[in-house]
Structures are given as C-alpha cells and as structure tokens.
Write a structure and sequence with these properties.
By secondary structure, the chain is of the alpha+beta class. The protein has 4 domains: about 5-95, no CATH class; about 105-195, 2-Layer Sandwich (Beta-Lactamase), CATH 3.30.450.20; about 195-270, Helix Hairpins, CATH 1.10.287; about 275-430, Histidine kinase-like ATPase, C-terminal domain (Heat Shock Protein 90). The chain is built from 11 helices and 13 strands. The protein has helices spanning about 5-25, 30-55, 70-105, 125-130, 150-155, 195-230, 235-270, 280-290, 315-330, 375-380, 390-400; strands spanning about 110, 120, 160-165, 175-180, 185-195, 275-280, 300-305, 310, 335-345, 350-355, 405-410, 415-420, 425. A hairpin with a 5-residue loop joins strand 4 (about 175-180) and strand 5. The chain is elongated, with a radius of gyration of 39 Å.
C-alpha cells in the first residue's frame, strides 16, 4: 500500500472516529458515525463529479494544488496523458515516414489482415492495380483484383511462390504477385510490374528461335559435305582425323540447335495436355534399354514400384528421363550405379534418378538448370554435354506442374527428384488415350 493510500485511510478513520465521538458526546454515537460517513461520501462524490467535468472540459484547476487523493489521481492522469501524447506524436511521425518511404517504392505494397481485407497500401498499388488507400480500406483485395491465381495464392499461405496476373487497370500490363507474413496474422502483398521483363524475355526467345532456325539450314549443308568428306575413299591420310573432328563438332552444333529450338518451344507453351496417358513403367524401361547398348558406363538399375502413369506428353517425359540418365552417366564412373525409380506418393508420384557419382558442390546446385551452365566445362565438352539438358528438364516439368529438387554430396552421389501432382497421376485402366512415344 502506498504512503498516500495510508494517509487517506488514516484521515478517513480519524474523521469517522471524531464523528462517532461527537455523537457519543450527545448520546447518539451511531447517528454521529452515520453522519460522518454521509459527509465523507458527499465530499468524494463531489470530487468525482468534478473530475468527470474536468475530463470533459479539460479544466483541472480545482485539482492542481493540494496533496489529497484526488490531486494525486489528477497528477497521475496528467503524467499518463502527456506520455501518451508524446508516444502518439512519435507514432504519427513514424507513420508519416513509413508512408513516405512506401510511396517512394516502385513496387506496390498492400497490408492485409487475416481475411485478406486491405489495411494499408502505398501509391504504387494504386498506379499498378487501382487500389485506393482510403476508399478501399476494409475491402477484400480479391474483390478488387479479380484474378483466380491471386486468390489461390492468398488461400494457400505459400510464401515461397509468386503468380503473374494482368493488371485490373490495363490487361497489357503484367504484375508479379508475392505474399509475405507481416506481424501476427497480417500479410503483405507485393505487386511488381514485370511487363518490360517479359517483353525482353520474349525478344530473347524469339531471337534464339530465329537464329537457330537460320543456322540449321547452312549447318545441314556443311554437315552433308563433311560426311561426304569423311566417307571419301581417296581422302589423304593427314585429313582423316580433322575431317572426323569436323563431323563431330557439326553434330554437336546440330544438337545445340535442336535443344535451343526445343527450349524456345517449351518456354512459349502453356501447360501440357492432360488427356493422354503415359505408361511410365514401359517408358522408363524403354529409355533405359537405349543406354544398355553401350556397356562402357555405369549400370542403370530400375525400381518400378507403381503401375500408375502420368497424364501429359509422352515425348516430353521421355526427354526428361533421357536427359537425367545421360547426365548421371556422364558424372558416374563405369563401376558405379544409377537407379531410376518410379513410385507413388501420398499426394502424387515421384520420378527419381540417383547415382553414386562424383557429386556436385552445394554452391552449384541452384544454377544446374540454367542454360549452358556446366560445373566442369572442359569435361562436358569432351563427353558431348552442351549444358541444355537440365534446362529442358526444368521446363518440361513446369509444363506438367511438377517440382524438381536436387540433392548431392561430393564423392557420394546426386539425386534428381521430380514430383508430379495428384491430378496428373492416372491408373492404367482409367487411361483415355494411349501414347507410346
């Protein structure tokens, strides 16, 4: 108990005792005590009403002097109010700084609550998606930006993914949407204009495709002449090896052009058709047999644990299997093992190619699916690799809504895991049409 509380109670006790004594002196002690209590009650009710009036009028002159309980209450109220005003001013200043900084951003930023209702947005969100800070506060963001992909992203709670949608203000403007957790149950929606980036990527794809098409015709002519030169019976001996090397390099360039054209096609295409059944067990077996013709590489072992197949393009899935096995062979010694597994998962199915090869350093793993990226460039050129196979694998899996994960350990081996979603898996008897290669 504080000193002020003790003084208040002692004073109250003394006053009531005095009233009791006065009543006792007049022969009515209880009446004296009752009158003392009533006087005390009226006194404090008066101050209570005065305090309430002071709160309304902001006039505390009556409480500014003295050392009673009510003066103490006023001083505490004044202190807390001053501190709250100071914090409020600091908060408002900070809020103004945050608004200025967010308004300076080129990307749109929208703060959402647990129900995806708008709490705050910056100026870029208005320019990119038409969201108004005051007018749209409290509205669901998916009622303003009507895009199924965005609604799905908000409901999934997957903060690692992003989606591309057209702007509500201009369908020709493409926005990249990403969600991040933001304090408690709130979320922060980022909107970025990627129209220019997509335009540049399209120009790059068109250039690669057009250049590859233009190179194919002269390369075919050169390849024909080189083949004729190699097969020419009267070719001088000193030209035999150079001619063979020229044929090898023209064949390699032909493979590069073919793979570049395939990459351009995959990048421009949407999702693969889900009306064709791919018999994965038969396809894996057939592709692995193509590699068994050459005994001078690691043994390829199959683990077909499910009869289920895929709904998609058999030709493209075949290229995935070929590229993954060929990649494993290039990086595994002849006495090593390569295992190709097809198995069912709780929510989908997995195609896995693992080897006991040299392994890949962890810093190289994120770049493995980049075009022309090779960990050992000299060795890749020597064994025929051009650095496009895994990029093709990545785009084919994207067309089939599958995820690629890569794990590796130096001198232990590497594992490529392709996980296909449930709706891409089909049992053999439910096939709608059969595609064999």
């Amino acid at each position: 108990m504080s000193e002020l509380s003790r003084k208040f109670l002692i004073g109250l006790f003394v006053f009531l005792a005095t009233a009791f004594a006065v009543g006792w002196f007049h022969g009515e002690p209880l009446i004296g005590l009752l009158l003392g209590a009533v006087i005390t009650l009226i006194y404090n009710i008066r101050y209570l009403l005065a305090f309430e009036r002071a709160l309304r009028n902001d006039d505390f002159a009556i409480f500014r002097y003295g050392d009673g309980i009510w003066q103490y209450i006023f001083s505490q109220y004044k202190f807390q109010r001053t501190r709250a005003d100071r914090h409020k001013a600091t908060y408002r200043s900070l809020l103004r700084e945050i608004r200025r900084s967010t308004n300076a951003m080129f990307d749109g930023a929208v703060v959402l609550n647990a129900n995806n209702e708008i709490i705050f947005c910056n100026r870029a969100a208005k320019n990119l998606a038409g969201i108004k800070r005051k007018k749209d506060r409290g509205r669901r963001v998916d009622n303003i930006i009507r895009a199924p992909a965005l609604s799905k992203l908000l409901q999934s709670g997957d903060y690692a993914q992003s989606v591309e949608i057209p702007s509500p203000l201009n369908p020709d403007v493409r926005l990249s949407c990403r969600v991040a957790p933001y304090g408690g149950s709130q979320k922060l929606l980022f909107l970025r204009d990627i129209t220019e980036r997509l335009r540049v990527n399209k120009m790059r794809r068109d250039f690669v495709a057009n250049a590859s098409h233009e190179l194919r015709s002269p390369l075919t002519v050169i390849s024909g002449y080189v083949d004729a030169l190699v097969d020419y019976p009267d070719l001088p001996e000193q030209w035999t090896q150079p001619a063979i090397e020229m044929r090898s390099q023209t064949q390699r360039m032909g493979r590069i052009i073919d793979e570049l054209l395939e990459l351009s096609r995959l990048e421009s295409a949407g999702l693969a058709d889900d009306k064709h059944f791919v018999d994965m067990g038969s396809l894996i077996t057939r592709v692995s047999e193509q590699f068994s013709i050459d005994p001078d590489h690691a043994h390829v072992r199959l683990q077909i644990e499910s009869n289920d197949g895929l709904l998609g393009s058999a030709t493209e899935i075949e290229s995935v299997i070929q590229n993954l096995i060929a990649n494993a062979i290039r990086h595994t010694a002849t006495d090593g093992d390569i295992t190709v597994t097809w198995r069912r998962l709780d929510s989908g199915a997995e195609l896995r190619v693992s080897d006991t090869g040299e392994g890949i350093a962890e810093e190289h793993l994120p770049r493995l699916t980049e075009r022309f990226f090779r960990v050992d460039r000299g060795r890749s050129r020597a064994d025929g690799g051009v650095g496009l196979g895994l990029s093709i694998v990545k785009h084919v899996l994207g067309r089939h809504e599958a995820e690629l994960s890569i794990s590796s350990e130096i001198d232990v081996g590497t594992r490529f895991s392709c996980v296909f979603p449930e709706h891409r898996i089909s049992e053999p008897f439910s096939r709608r049409s059969s595609v064999h290669g």
